[in-house]
Specification:
The chain is of the alpha/beta class. Helices cover about 45% and strands about 20% of the residues. It has a 7-stranded mixed beta sheet. Strands 6-7 form a two-stranded antiparallel ribbon. The longest helix has about 30 residues. The N terminus is likely disordered.
């Protein structure tokens, strides 16, 4: 599977199944729901050979990476891979909780001062995340700080999931903005958001758009991997700070939120454009490696990330 193939794979599951899961959570609560999703996770694990290979490949690279053997509880096997899938199921379940308000979730915030300074100065910024832990924790951040977050995502590749879950969204401080690769119109809208002191949230570890997608290849867990240029070019166009945001699940009631500045302002001089962009993406990949070591089973890219399969 190519690095962009995730974007054209049809959604698995059904609308009825997802609605039933949401309804079950509403009626039975978190504890029973966590047991309820186990057979669902097992089904997808057993029927997804490419995803299992991708999981084993990622875990093997992490295990061989400095510090990886200590982060994992043993050499990667099917047991570790299933644990990887189960963590994904729990994070998806937490997404329902966040959309319903999640009053019982504790946020442990590391680097709060970086966002507090931006909010106090009414400065907008790009919040750059990854498919690690739950980016949905930003909903709780918005609700508890009063800041407006505009989440830029390609929703057309998961219409069933987003249709069901976004109907639960009652938080007017979080706006989901659908973006298609190559559409420049969103930049003008986002620039207005930043000028109002709002945040723009985007993920930076998955390439979309197929063969013409612009990428930067940098080392990641010991091997070159392709990362999209788009999020970094967006920060350059918006002329605003870029802050790395990661939300890691630390237990059924706790999420640890990390915020750290990547750049006060993204400058890409014409003469040094490639070198400057490569350096910024390389720094992002290095920080992502550190968070993978911190939460090894919570990086959720179940496809051929390194392009090793035809």
């Amino acid at each position: 599977m190519s690095r962009a193939a995730w974007a054209i794979v049809a959604e698995r599951g059904s609308m009825a199944g997802m609605r039933f899961t949401v309804g079950f959570y509403r009626v039975c609560g978190r504890w029973l729901s966590e047991y309820f999703i186990l057979p669902i996770v097992a089904y997808f694990f057993l029927t997804d050979p490419r995803g299992r290979r991708a999981s084993r490949r990622y875990l093997a690279k992490l295990y061989a990476f400095p510090g990886g053997a200590q982060a994992l509880d043993g050499p990667p096997t099917l047991r570790q891979s299933f644990h990887h899938y189960r963590e994904f199921g729990l994070v998806i379940l937490d997404r329902v909780r966040f959309l319903l308000g999640a009053p019982d979730v504790e946020l442990v915030f590391r680097g709060r001062e970086h966002l507090t300074a931006l909010i106090a100065a009414k400065r907008g910024a790009v919040l750059l995340g990854a498919h690690l832990g739950s980016f949905e924790a930003l909903r709780l951040l918005a609700a508890r700080t009063g800041v407006t977050v505009n989440v830029l995502m390609i929703t057309r590749h998961a219409p069933r999931t987003n249709t069901v879950l976004e109907r639960l969204n009652r938080d007017t401080r979080v706006h989901v903005i659908q973006s298609d690769p190559g559409n420049p119109d969103a930049v003008f809208h986002l620039k207005a958001c930043v000028e109002r002191g709002e945040f723009v949230a985007i993920l930076g570890d998955r390439v979309a758009g197929g063969a013409r997608a612009r990428v930067v290849r940098v080392p990641f867990l010991g091997q070159p991997a392709a990362f999209p240029q788009g999020p970094f070019l967006l920060a350059h166009a918006l002329q605003c700070p870029i802050v790395l945001m990661i939300g890691v699940r630390r237990g059924p009631r706790t999420y640890e939120i990390f915020a750290e500045p990547l750049a006060e302002r993204v400058l890409l001089p014409r003469a040094e454009r490639k070198e400057s962009l490569d350096a910024l993406v390389k720094r992002y990949a290095e920080r992502l490696e550190a968070y993978c070591l911190s939460a090894p089973y919570q990086w959720f890219n179940f496809f051929d990330f390194w392009g090793e399969e035809r």
